[in-house]
Amino acid sequence: MMWRLFHSLRGRLIALVLLGAVPGLGAILYTAETQRQRDAVAAQAEAMRTVQFVAGTQRELFAETQRLLQVLAQLPAVHEGSAASCSALLTHLHKQDPAPRYSSFFAVRPDGDVFCSSAPLTRRINAADQAYYRRVLATRAFAVGDYQIGRITGRAIIVLAQPVLDAAGAVRAVVGAGIDLAWLNRLAAEARLPAGSTLTLVDHAGTVLARNPDGEKWIGRSLAGTPQLAAMHAQHDGTLEIAGLDGVRRLYAFTAIYESHQEGHAHLSIGIPAAAVFAEADRTRRRHLLTFALAVLLMLAAAWAGGHVFVLRQVNALLGAVQRLSAGDLGARAGLSAGVSEIGRLAQAFNRMAAALEQRTRDNEEKERRIVRLNRVYATLSRINSAIIRLRGRTELLQETCRIAVEEGRFRLAWIGHLEPGSRELAPAQWYGSETDALRSLRLPLDAIAPGAAEPIGALLRAGRALVCNDIARAPPPEREAALACGARACALLPLHAAGNVVGALNLYAAEPDFFDVEEVKLLEELAADISLGLEYIEKDDKLHRLSYYDPLTDLPNRLLFGDRLHQALSRAPRYRDRHVAVLMLDVARLKEINSLHGHHAGDALLRDVARRLRALLRPGDTAARFGSATFGILLVDVAEASDVATVAGRMAEALQAPVTLNGEELFVTARLGIAVSPRDGDEAEMLIRHAEAAVRLPPAEAGGAFHFYTAEIDQQAMERLELEKALRRALERRELSLHYQPVVDLQTLEVVGAEALMRWQHPVLGAVSPARFIPVAEETGLIVPLGEWALETALAQSRHWQARGLPVTVAVNLSVKQLQQADFAERLAGLLEAAGPTRLALEITESLLMKAPERYVALLNALRTQGLSIYIDDFGTGYSSLTYLKRLPVDTLKIDISFVRDIARDPEDAAIVKAIVALAHSLGMKAIAEGVETAEQFSALRALSVDAAQGFLFSPAVPAEAFEALGRRPFHPLGS
After folding, report:
1. Neighbours of 292 (CB within 10 A)
2. Does 668 lie in the same domain as 754?
3. End of a domain among 258, 281, 304?
4. Tell me: the pLDDT tens digits for 323-371?
5. Is residue 39 within a helix (H) or strand (E), and if so which, with residue range?
6. Is 850 within a domain?
7. DSSP E strand boundaries for 244-335
8. For residue 417, what are the β-bridge partners?
9. Which residues constitute the domain of residue 704?
10. Beta bridge partners of 444
11. Strand 893-896 to strand 927-930: parallel, antiparallel, or no bridges (unpaired)?
């Protein structure tokens, strides 16, 4: 019976109670002693943690102070040594200290004098004998002083100092901060030490620097000869139990807080009274002894009487639940009421474990499903990105996207619709999947309200927002019917972008409801973004291809595509006898004039109209291309006779004669054509183009009509022009060029007040070459730049010479557009002016040139004006001046064009125009000079209109410098004046 009882749980409980009762007293006593030891160890550990925390706080304060001093050392108020600004800065900084942690901030000069401080300086203080000061001077680096009583504040502090270095690395000053040791009181309060505990800071010699509590009583006392100081000198960190100087036995923990260089370490210690440490252990021992006997009796009774009621029945129920759970029943529970007993808590723990296991299993299954789905989307994303890189066609990319979405993404169906501006419905354009017949007639209304939203589908798509419907029954009727017919139960509509605009939408159907979660939608949005990026790349590639082969203004093929088509036509021509290929070059005249008078938008509209007319005249297979600003090329293939080409050229010339209406105004176009026919004029593409260009450049007087066929004589003229260019390139080296000067006469005093420098060329073989012949060649070839610079340099030297000889006339030099377009023109001209010395120079710039880019020339002319130059506007009245820009331009003189002077004595309109120009010039503080004055009548009319000065053959043609000097020293007497 006893044996069976022992093997039962109830018997084992009783046996355990008895076994526990025998050694109970010893266990209680042993536990009490162990508790005392643990309390001692815990108190020492807690004291050590507290003292190390306080020490760490001090070290962190040191590091923070070092960074602060490094910033202060860079500030001008400290670096430049201004006592007033420095003290104001340090006082402000001290007020910002929230703790406060610092007693003061101060700065010291290299001789040791404190010249500024956050605390008032009531006397002269020298820090040359301080340890921190000597260390900063010795190391030129951050230094920490000893704990001391501050000379400025009279409080216990430790000084931290940072050198202020000059550019050479020498110490310019020392900036420091005194850390107030009163922080110990705050840290002691925060540590919440037991009553009677102490927090003490001593220096390396054992002198008390700070103590909490009773700091005033203990500061300055020495611990020399005490076991506590001996232990501190023996090791940096440690604990011991001794009686302090006040006779109270405490458990002490100490740590070295900072090394004071060669003198040793300062230490921080915490002492906790032994009585407070062991109080709880003593009370526990007495309580255990008193209750021991009663506890044993109660345990025996509980073990016997409650073994079955309170233990066995619950254990059996718990065991049954464990067995069901181990068999795989995740819903198994103990079925015991919650309680505070061990078995009740064990039952609760078991139930929580079983519930957690069941939930974790469900979560893992859900995670596995989610991972599978996300991996599916990632695979789809990867494959579509590969397709974006591989494919270059928009349709191919969208079709491949739908296929990959279905095959890789396991979607039921995928379709993409194009979203055109102003469209009211979205229809599938590309799709993939099973049972797609329902999509062929699908039209998704964009004004339908999206499920779960307050806005229409179209508005949401154009705003770039994805639409998700996890229950297809809530979708708009057209899509709902199509989706259900395809076996779909959820869908997502994702906008596609190109060039910042929504251009379409990708619709993905899933076979199960609630298919699209937040993570999958996020990945699908990335997928749509990648597809959009691919569409943008394709669109940009198409644009680049278009820009490479087509003119963006007229949408005609460019020269490159024209050459390719011409090459192909020439390669096919030998297969067909008696058939020819013709190249026509068409040049539109007066384009620059139209741009100047009506703006570039008018010129662009004119070119587009010319392109439209040319297209209308061409057969299929022929090509019209734009070669340059006003030049078009026409390719005619399969030509039977040259007369057929002449017929086409005549039709083109006739078609272009019709006026173009722009902004209600009719503009008339004149065009010339040059023609080259293969194989008569060449059998290579570049040769035919070159010969046609040579024919179109033939002067109108020689061409004899609107078009001209290429001849060998045209090549001869081109060769002569080339020879003229070669000779012009050597003209400067051979000193064949010179400047002649035409006088400018004041119309009131009749004295010479200026001269216009005009270039002349005397060739050893050709003789005197007209400027009308060589200046255009110089402009076309860029030679005008060195020629213009030579003219400026020569005119400056001549002006300087005349001033020295008492003839202070202003010399005007004409500038070319190519000179002004040079980025360094102003700097190069400044160099010429500096080399020439004081002169009187004017620069003449045509009105049409200024109006091409007035904003640019305002800045340039201002730069030239600051160099002492005068600015003239030449040929004024023939361009299209803006009065807004004219008043901003730094112009001195307007030169009235000869076209208004020629008939001024007979034509009232010319006289009115000249009068208006003079009034405009005078109102803007400018002068007016008339050009081309040849008769006394012109002179009288100009003088009556208050024109300031004039030049022309009436006074003198352009003459060499020596002859001009003689003219400039006498007044003129025009005939009839």
Report:
1. 14
2. no
3. 281
4. 777 777 777 777 666 665 666 677 777 777 877 877 887 777 667 767 7
5. helix 24-74
6. yes
7. 249-259, 265-273
8. 428, 505
9. 550-710
10. 426
11. parallel
